[in-house]
Design goal:
By secondary structure, this protein is α/β, with parallel strands linked by helices. It folds into 3 domains: 189 residues, Alpha-D-Glucose-1,6-Bisphosphate, Chain A, domain 3 (3-Layer(aba) Sandwich), CATH 3.40.120; 232 residues, 3-Layer(aba) Sandwich (Alpha-D-Glucose-1,6-Bisphosphate, Chain A, domain 3); 140 residues, 2-Layer Sandwich (TATA-Binding Protein). Helices cover 33% and strands 26% of the residues.
Length: 567
């Protein structure tokens, strides 16, 4: 066997390699700059080595298959080999869903994993790429860790790699190398197998199969349709829903992962997953779901295009968790949501006398609570839902969980289950306005204005009117979170204004964009009246949004008179 040599390459720091809520996201062209990717990967490995033993360690590597993914996988392998990492497990062709990586880290007791994804951002040579590190619990690295990565990127002067290490990403099996006398292994595996095995453990596939086939207590086959948006979940949908749960092959749409996601935006919302919305409005299918680029987000639709908001989806899953075998076996410890997410889960938690947490945006904030045995089910308004089976949000898991509930409610529909939930708990009307690629200076000026506004004691008690609707401020702040497990504090997590009727508006600058600033405006109002619960959400929320725009002076600061996306 050829003995490979470690090479040391001089480099210079790049400015701005600061990880956001889910790693570093930039354009592909940025990552393709000389040494740019190498600098960041070296910074990850050096940060890991500062707190754990790399010698002989196992790391998981894979991504959503977007453009530049395979190039980055090969760079990671060369750098890991130069730092005495013992073994890499890589998904075939460099592909792994983010939930599958989280599962595999936990299953193999790996030191961590490097995930190559920009999630729901567009892909292709002129679009976005991303790299993030997940720690040994399977979840995204916490702020303290990513801050150390960033500090390293600012001073890096060299990186080590094995230049002539050649990994065959398409060939299943183990590839062995000798690096300056030390063994180094790369195992290429089927990216779906371990995840599918986990789903079989968590759910009753026989009962779901009866639902889809219309056997047992079910009067007719339950028609399902899945849109993978040409992201990573296509093979997972085909294996789990079509092969194992017996859904027709035709129910798997856009199931071939493509480097540019077919020129589409792999974001499962009403705007970008419009083909699924149109398909569901035909009235043929009973259940529909879309998934994002790396498989951690989901959108749930019922017959005739009935849209389930992420906050309602989380609350319905919580209220019906007793139908899911995993929770039957392990119990329900607690619930949580991100701060901008509508408060539907809050009342379910209260009714069940379970512990409840409100955390900042970013899945890493749920991980500590799960590891401490205090959290079972959680979600974010940005179409992310999951449980403590892994430490990432999980789109495919969410769809199976919904089907589990439907399998236990013969004759029920997605819409009837949600409407029954509103009757019992009330309805939270919710919307999110995204203003993408705003000028950084204008976005900052708006947030500075809002910060000054919420710090002024005179704001409390002040009323704002729109038409015949009046909103009186009960509380306003820039959200701060103290982790109940480790005591760490996360400040400046979003401007929050709560009105006396329970309505809320929230403003945040998103941490998932690659260029410019994405301003997110959230509106949430609670409605106990069953007649009003069935009214149009846009009509109910419009006065609240108008007040939010007036308070923030968003158009004045950004020049934007309409959002890019309304959810």
């Amino acid at each position: 066997m050829e003995v490979l040599q470690i090479n040391t390459i001089a480099t210079e720091p790049y400015q701005g390699q600061k990880p956001g809520t889910s790693g570093l996201r930039k354009t592909v062209k940025e990552f393709q700059k000389p040494n740019y990717t190498e600098n960041f990967v070296q910074s990850i490995i050096s940060t890991v080595a500062a707190s754990a033993k790399l010698d002989g360690a196992l790391l998981i590597v894979g991504g959503d298959g977007r453009y530049y993914c395979q190039d980055a996988v090969r760079i990671i392998a060369k750098i890991c080999a130069a730092h005495k990492v013992g073994k890499l497990i890589i998904g075939q062709n460099g592909i792994f869903s983010t939930p599958a990586v989280s599962n595999l880290i936990r299953k193999t007791k790996a030191l961590g994993g490097i995930i190559l994804t920009a999630s729901h951002n567009p892909g292709g040579p002129n679009a976005d790429f991303g790299i993030k590190y997940n720690i040994s619990n399977g979840g995204p690295a916490p702020d303290g860790f990513t801050n150390k990565i960033y500090e390293y990127t600012k001073t890096i002067r060299a990186y080590n790699m094995v230049n002539n290490l050649n990994v065959e990403l398409e060939r299943l099996g183990t590839q062995k190398f000798l690096v300056e006398g030390l063994p180094f292994e790369v195992e290429i595996i089927d990216s779906v197998a371990d995840y599918a095995a986990l789903m079989r453990e968590l759910f009753d596939f026989n009962k779901i199969r009866e639902l889809l086939q219309g056997t047992g207590p079910h009067p007719a086959p339950f028609q399902v349709f899945f849109d993978s948006l040409h992201g990573v979940t296509g093979p997972y949908v085909r294996r789990i829903f079509c092969m194992e749960l017996s859904a027709p092959e035709s129910s798997a749409s856009n199931a071939e992962p493509l480097p540019d996601f077919g020129g589409e935006h792999p974001d499962p919302n009403l705007t970008y997953a419009h083909k699924l919305v149109e398909k569901m409005k035909e009235g043929i299918y009973d259940f529909g779901a879309a998934f994002d680029g790396d498989g951690d987000r989901n959108m749930i639709l019922g017959k005739n295009g009935f849209f389930v908001t992420p906050s309602d989806s989380l609350a319905v899953l919580a209220a019906n968790a007793h139908f899911i075998p995993y929770f039957q076996k392990n119990g329900l410890k607690g619930f949580a949501r991100s701060m901008p997410t509508a408060g539907a889960i809050d009342r379910v938690s209260e009714s069940m006398a379970k512990e409840f947490f409100e955390v900042p945006t970013g899945w890493k904030y749920f991980g500590n609570l799960m590891d401490a045995g205090r959290l079972s089910l959680c979600g974010e308004e940005s179409f992310g839902t999951g449980s403590d089976h892994i430490r990432e949000k999980d789109g495919v898991w969410t769809a199976i969980a919904w089907l589990s509930i439907l399998a236990n409610k013969p004759g029920e529909s997605v819409e009837s289950i949600v409407v029954d939930h509103w009757t019992k708990f009330g309805r939270n009307f919710f919307t999110r306005y995204d203003y993408e690629n705003c000028e950084d200076a204008g976005a900052k000026a708006m947030m500075d204005h809002l910060n000054a506004l919420v710090k002024d004691p005179a704001l409390t008690g002040k009323s704002y009117a729109d038409g015949d609707k009046t909103f009186t401020v009960a509380k306003a702040d820039n959200f701060s979170y103290k982790d109940p497990v480790d005591g760490s504090v996360s400040e400046n997590q979003g401007i929050r204004v709560v009105f006396k009727d329970g309505s809320r508006i929230v403003f945040r600058i998103s941490g998932t964009g690659s260029t410019g600033s994405t301003i997110r405006l959230y509106g949430d109002c609670y409605e106990p009246d069953q007649v009003k619960q069935k009214m149009d959400a846009g009509f109910i929320l419009k006065p609240l949004i108008n007040v939010a725009l007036a308070m923030s002076k968003l158009t004045h600061f950004t020049g934007r008179d309409a959002p890019t996306v309304i959810t």
